[in-house]
Design a protein that fits this description.
Structural class: alpha+beta
Mean pLDDT: 84
CATH architecture: 2-Layer Sandwich
CATH superfamily: Kinase associated domain 1, KA1
Distance between the termini: 28 Å
CATH class: Alpha Beta
Strand content: 25-35%
CATH topology: TATA-Binding Protein
Radius of gyration: 14 Å
Number of domains: 1
Low-confidence stretches: 109-116
Number of helices: 3
Strand order of the largest sheet: 1-5-4-3-2
Helix content: 25-40%
Number of strands: 5
Largest sheet: 5 strands, antiparallel
């Protein structure tokens, strides 16, 4: 049986969806990825770091409440290890839109499993 490797993750934000998408697009462009956005779904595409295959990620923004948005990030093509490196790099570039519970606050159960 093949080991389970996480190919999808999420984070939350208190910024408006348009601000989140704009930050993602800017970060992706700075990483040399092509960006395709329609409504609240964004596809990022490029060549893998080792230049041997295509790499693609799909991000979708959902409104949980009027002031809380969840962003699903899913690997669409490419190496899973490369996806994890990409995700870490993306989180560093868009840290200003990612919401984190205050220190010592447990936060909602939904948020405890969705961190960058």
């Amino acid at each position: 049986m093949q080991d389970y490797v996480k190919r999808k993750t999420r984070f939350v934000s208190r910024q408006p969806a348009k601000v989140i998408i704009s930050a993602i697009e800017e970060a992706a462009c700075s990483m040399g990825l092509n960006v395709h956005t329609r409504s609240y779904k964004t596809r990022l595409e490029g060549v893998s770091a080792n230049k041997t295959s295509q790499f693609a990620v799909v991000l979708e923004v959902y409104e949980v409440t009027p002031s809380l948005f969840m962003v699903d990030v899913c690997k669409a093509a490419g190496d899973t290890l490369e996806y994890h490196k990409f995700y870490k790099n993306l989180c560093e570039k868009i840290h200003h839109v990612i919401w984190r519970a205050k220190e010592g606050s447990p936060g909602p159960a939904l948020l405890r499993t969705m961190t960058c």
